[in-house]
Amino acid sequence: MKTGSFIHNPKMRSFLLKFFGQKNFFWKLITPLLKLQKNMKTDCIFCKIVRGEMSSKKVYENEKVIAFHDINPQAPVHILVVPKKHIEKITDLEDSEEDKEILYDIIKTCKIIANQMKIAERGFRIVVNTNPEGGQTVYHLHFHIIGGRQMRWPPG
Ligand code: AMP
Ligand code: ZN
After folding, report:
1. What is the DSSP string of 72-97?
2. Residues labelled as active-site residues
3. 135 in contact with ligand 1, CB cutoff 6 A
4. Are 81 and 141 in contact (CB under 8 A)?
């Protein structure tokens, strides 16, 4: 379709007039872009894995989360469950429907992974390191699922 006929199409003209005639059309245009930017960080390694810009040994993925093998495993099974939304740490989770759904999805995924990796019956550990004294090194929320050997207590 030529640009001229696109603009002169009556339906398209009325849509464009309505859309750009609104007082807040500018915000309607940029809000999705701002949301995208808020949910993703360009320099975050887990955001890069989510976007497929960095490779990972993926074991599970759905709309909200991704799970992959830890690059430096601390046990025979060591999987990271990561929300696709960039949330720095567990204490940054908000009381919103979106974050509640993400948290529920993470827990559901932990159960799926434990069954998939055949450690559900034997036992396993879920760890969420938080901030420097908690030993967090990657500031994009992730749940470690560790299993396949006897866990010790207290943890180091
Ligand atoms: P934490 O220290 O709790 O923040 O955990 C970060 C985890 O991410 C560590 O266990 C790292 O081995 C792991 N890790 C770092 N970079 C990668 C990567 N590119 N792929 C998979 N796991 C990674
Ligand atoms: Zn991130």
Report:
1. S-SSSEEEEEEESS---SGGG--SSH
2. 142
3. yes
4. no
